[in-house]
Write a structure and sequence with these properties.
Largest sheet: 8 strands, mixed
Cofactor: Mn(2+)
Helix content: 40-55%
Number of strands: 16
Distance between the termini: 126 Å
CATH architecture of the largest domain: Alpha-Beta Complex
Order of helices and strands: HHHEHEHEHEEHEEEHHHEEHHEHEHEEEE
Strand order of the largest sheet: 3-2-1-4-8-6-9-7
Main location: cytoplasm
Structural class: alpha/beta
Number of domains: 3
CATH topology of the largest domain: Spore Coat Polysaccharide Biosynthesis Protein SpsA, Chain A
Bound molecules: 2-acetamido-2-deoxy-beta-D-glucopyranose
Number of helices: 14
Region (Disordered): 84-107
EC number: 2.4.1.101
CATH superfamily of the largest domain: Spore Coat Polysaccharide Biosynthesis Protein SpsA, Chain A
Shape: elongated
GO cellular component, one term: Golgi membrane
Amino acid sequence: MRKNQFIGFAFVSVCLWALVTYYLFLDRPLNHKPDQQKQIQIQEHLSLLELKLNEQFLDGEKLLQQLRNIVKEQQLSVRVNEAGAEGRGVGEEQQLEKQQGEKEDEQVNRMRSLAEEVLPDGGPVIAVLVFACNRITVNKCIDQLLKYRPARERFPIIVSQDCGHRPTADVIELYGDEITRIEQPDQSDIPVPPKEKKFKGYFKIARHYGWALNYTFFKFNFDTVIIVEDDLDIAPDFFEYFLGTYPILKRDPTLWCVSAWNDNGKAGLVDENAPDLLYRTDFFPGLGWMLTKSVWAELAPKWPSSYWDDWVRQPEQRRNRACIRPEISRTRTFGKIGVSNGHFYEKHLKYIKLNEKFVPFTQKNLTYLLKDNYDVQFVKQVYESLVVTYQELKSDSIVSEGSVRIPYHTNDIYKRTAKLLGLMDDFRSGVPRTGYRGVVSFLYKGRRVYLAPNANWKGYDPGWS
Ligand SMILES: *[C@@H]1O[C@H](CO)[C@@H](O)[C@H](O)[C@H]1NC(C)=O
Ligand SMILES: *[C@@H]1O[C@H](CO)[C@@H](O)[C@H](O)[C@H]1NC(C)=O
């Protein structure tokens, strides 16, 4: 036997001996019979195993339950959305409704405290209400509002969504608490007269406006709201413009709105050196406009089922009140697809110039816009201007400097002249676009021009269209 082999053999023997000794004397108490002892051990092992399995099973159950809950939540939210879209068909999710109700209450309380906050400078809190439906490009509008907003506590942004369009809701929700999202709950079908079937969109818009303005003024309790649609670009001084004109709107009961829009605001028709110039207008321009609660309280109970913009232009609603509008628009629409007329956009809206120079309106004295000041000054300015014809204006044959006036006496003459000058030529309730006391002010070849009725003008003729 070789030496190494012997050592190996001896080592294995010693190990075996140790193992046997351990088994016989230590692991096994001598006062138990071997079989009995073994059985007890097996029993113990089995119970332990059972216990562990049970634990794992319970863990698994827990996990499974969590998974089930997640799936259920997902299904519920899908169903709630569907119910929203189809007009509340599901009655089984009372708990979810309760949760939503609590969330809503919390939102209302939060917004109410924002609305009632007294800001350090004593200035107003003005909500910005964005109307959205199914255009995911709403982010373009929201991004600009957030970019130019001078202070969030001054201008809380609310995005009101109609149409139950999930992708748009997802885009809006990405902004988290930078903005507040509300959703028009009534998604029921609107019965529309057969002749107006293709204008159904306008009925939905009017319903949405009625609901969202009620919510913002009466539930959130804001006193003043700037209304914006989801397809608007805004100018850098958009907020400054509304903040600066706010005191005038509050002070003058013959004003009912401030609008950021000039209907004749194309390049060439506006004075690009006068971004600070503002007007009064009898024509409601819309497209980014500010409204107070007192006016809304008056309009809300009789709010129409469609064509709300032409409705507010009617004498019964307007009641001889005017809006403030700028020389150079503070909004521009980046594409009307959907309900509005695409043709109108291509032909007209897309040429409206958006202001680029920031005007510090809050530092300016805007009291010239109050009716008593404005009317005297405006009438004087218009009717002291040299009377010219369109041909004279076009041929550059006017020698004197300064503003000029082109008179009109009839609906047809107005329309024909407006067309020649590149102005909007339509009327609403007898009021021409941008008109004040019948006068339309614009720039032509660098010269201020007033297209104006006679000085003894007696008021609008709603028959003009
Ligand atoms: C809005 O509120 C007014 C006044 O409380 C109410 O008459 C009107 O029906 C409401 N409109 C909508 C759409 O809820
Ligand atoms: C603002 O302008 C008006 C004239 O339109 C003037 O009477 C008034 O004194 C001015 N106010 C201030 C504070 O300068």
